[in-house]
Design goal:
Layout: H1 2-18, H2 21-45, H3 52-77, H4 86-94, E1 97-103, E2 113-114, H5 115-118, H6 120-124, E3 127-133, E4 136-138, E5 146-147, E6 152-158, H7 159-169
Antiparallel strand pairs: 1-6, 2-5, 3-4, 3-6
Amino acid sequence: MKNISELITDLAYSAVFLRDRDISSEVIRLYRKVQELEKDTLKFLFRIKESEEDRMFIIDLVNSIRELSYQAVRIARLSYSISMPSIIQDVLKESDKRIIVETITRKSKIANKTISDSEIRTKTKATIIAIKRKNDWIFNIDTKVKIFPNDLIVAVGRAGSEALLKELLS
């Protein structure tokens, strides 16, 4: 649940930043997964021996993660807005944690390499959270995913990551 709640938050901001309904739909799908995991966790919680205090802590944590994920859905739905104030775009661009969107060129050093082989995370400290290939989105990004020319990558990183990623892509 923790990992999904982190991803869903980054994707929600990406949906708004890119004004992309496909990403917004993925946020909603992931929220449903969080709801399923919440139910499974609560069922499991009552089958194991824990103190009442520990159970209440776990219940509060699970509820908070679900609520955080729901708020991400609300943010993602803003991508459906007809217009967005320009100040929002400016704020998103200037935040410490950045959404980095780049297209892979044929000359890119990472074209036709896997995430692992490209060493993006090691060299830039950025994490790819989504790839748009033609009209399809890939959200289950692992080290074996291959990056091709013309892929649009969506990554999350700090301010310095953006420049390092652009350099790696050149």
